[in-house]
Known about the structure:
The complex is a heterodimer of chains A (about 300) and B (about 500).
Chain A lengths: L3 H32 L18 E4 L5 E5 L3 E4 L6 H11 L1 H4 L23 H9 L22 H14 L6 E4 L6 H11 L1 H4 L6 E2 L5 E2 L7 H10 L13 H15 L15 H24 L3
Antiparallel strand pairs in A: 1-2, 2-3, 3-4, 5-6
Helix pairs in contact in A: 2-5, 4-5, 4-8, 6-9, 8-9
Chain B lengths: L1 H15 L3 H14 L2 H9 L1 E2 L7 H22 L6 E3 L11 E3 H11 L4 H28 L8 H23 L4 H15 L5 H9 L8 H31 L17 E2 H26 L5 H4 L18 H9 L5 E3 L2 E3 L1 H29 L15 H20 L2 H8 L3 H32 L10 E5 L5 E5 L4 H4 L30
Amino acid sequence: MGLTTPLMKRLARTIVAGMFVAAPGALFVGAAHAANYNPTETSRRNAGTPNSSIVVKNKSGTVIEYGNQYITYSAPSPKLDGLGEALFMENCASCHGTQADGVPANGTTGAYPDLVGLGPATIDFWVVSGRMPSANPRAIEASRRLPRLTPNQALAIAAWVNSLAPSIPLVPTPHLANANVSDGAALFALNCASCHTIEGDGDALASSTFSPSLRNIPAFQVVEAIRTGPANMPRFTGNLSDQQVLDVTKYVTTEIQHPNNPGGFGLGGLGPVAEGFVGLLLGVGVLVLVCYWIGERS
Amino acid sequence: MSEITATNKRARRKAEGRYGKVGKALNELDDRLGVAKGGRTFMDKIFPDHWSFMLGEIVLYSFVILMVTGVFLTFYFIPSSAIVTYHGAYLPLDGQKVTQAFSSTVNISFAVRGGLLMRQMHHWACDIFVGAMVVHMARVFFTGAFRKPRELNWNIGVTLLTLAITNGFLGYSLPDDLVSGTGIRIAYSIVLSIPFVGTYLAFFIFGGNFPGTSTIPRFYILHCLIVPLIIIGLVGAHLFLLVRQKHTQFPGEGRTEKNVVGSPMFPVFMAKTTGFLFIVGGFTALLSAFAQINPIWQFGPYDASRISYAVQPDWYMGFLDGALRIWPSWSFHSFGHTIPFEVLVPALILPGIIFTLAAAWPIIERLYTKDNEIHHLLDRPSDRPKRTAAGVSVLAFVTMLFIASSTDVIANFFHISLNTVLWLMRVTTILVPIIVYPITYKICKEMQAVHGAGKRKTPNIVSRTVEGEYVATPTPAYQDDRGHDLEATAVPTFIEVEPEEPNEGGVRTVDR
């Protein structure tokens, strides 16, 4: 016994120590195993020319207007080119370069996007929504603020950049009277709610990126964003028809921005977090105070 | 003429006896059911006066509201996953394929008169129900009311809390909207995460794979019948034990372990508590009339292919959601098996530990203090610094987990990276409880040392004399702080005490 007891103790100690080593070891083996798993890489490409019933070309054969009864896309007037060039040199060229190719005067490449061939809708969206010119060019994501340039100036910049290499998407005009808000609600839940939240309030996504609130954005900007996919947002081209984009736009500009929303104060659309705070602080809090008021009367 | 009427009235009153029609009716009742003795004992029941002893009543009364509004909702709610085309008052959903559960809930909100108010009252009352339960539990814990002989009642309370949280989740799932459907999806995954039996258990509970058609009907019967029945039974047991063991009281002049000093059930306590019932009901109705909760028509119907970002559960499930969010993604994949520790640990093991700790606390404390005495006098929290610090520490931990369930809201509000907030929550959830313990301990020690700490300050009355001099005179201490007038409050006697019958030759007379 004198020998076996310490031996057994030592054995037990070894087993316990072994478990402490083995358990995290097994975890790491499992984690490494999981890390080898490569999800199928998907690549998204521009699905090409939209299905249009109207197509208007200019003398040189460039498409200057296309679309249908839901949305018409039109190129900004070439008369704006001169104004656009001046504005671009003043506001954009310090980063995007004088040729709009993303190479500034100091020759840095790869730091700023090449704008040639992105289509007027892209350029117009970034400027008219107040994201460009950026307050902080080094930020991961240009955040939205009060627009520095007027809608006409934004169109002018888009016109000049487009004159370098004519491309689509052109600047959209949605015809909201032809939209179906119910289909829009279903499409919104399917395509948009996973980032913008179902109430359209926007939220923080990973690594300093944010999905913006949709509460005050005009209809044509909704279409521009869907068709061009600014920043992290995917570009919806072939998978949503113009009719579907119009339905979503109608839903955003009516039910998201002016909801038929009975039941009292909406608590900022923060959902159960805000409800929990109100329930605990106001609900339980007031009743505890009432408790104190009644209980102290003896 | 009037004189005759007056005389008649007087004569009639005399015939009715001292306590009028009520007394007469009660006498009739007593003749048949013998309620006098028990009723008398009940009405003489003494409840110590302290405001914090009424916290449990918030829970009880919000439960009453839950039952009343819940019964109303069952008249209109259809617990079915059958797909119908919605054609109703809310136009943005018109023509969409939704489940009957969702469609009927939208109809309650838009088409049934008073339906939305009832739905919101039911939901707000639930938030208040669980919240007040936690506050009540904290009062019982910090004053040591769970000690011998009340360990059983403490454990009934812990069981009630878990049942309330479960039933809240079940009810939240019933409308089958986008947000609650996501909740069921998460619950399904949590059951799946249990090693070896998870898949079988999930199929057993949810009646097949997710999303199935049997979840809503099953949750409905659990939410409306089975869990509430258990809750009602346990509430009954909770209150029976409370009356049987008599209420605890704070130490004070004339209060000992052998007596109960306070107001009688009738009329003082009865008046207070009935008033309180109406205040809780009225306040919940006000809150429901002015503050929106769970606008499911904005969320739309659930569909397994859809998800909304920033989905949180109700607040009482928040600590589980927070734990799930901040737990690192550790999992085990080998030998053809996957054990997802990233779900299993935060969603099952962690709450398991917290609730087991809560249930076992009376035993743990007795093992530590070796105190096996019966206690009817409560502790001041500052007199038990270790217990208070431990309780505050656990509360801080759960609160941090709750805050962690809103990482995205915090990141969006302060416009900082979500990843930074996630790491911040991971660190603070561990650090805050550790820091809170010694701070609470020190505060308790300080409060013990300071003379008169915890006593309320009374106002000085400043008066000016005729000559213009100002004199400050302290007012006497509050009644609670200087000890009670121990004269028993007289209880009105409704029933005349009848003289006992004499014993007759070997026949024993036993009072009923």
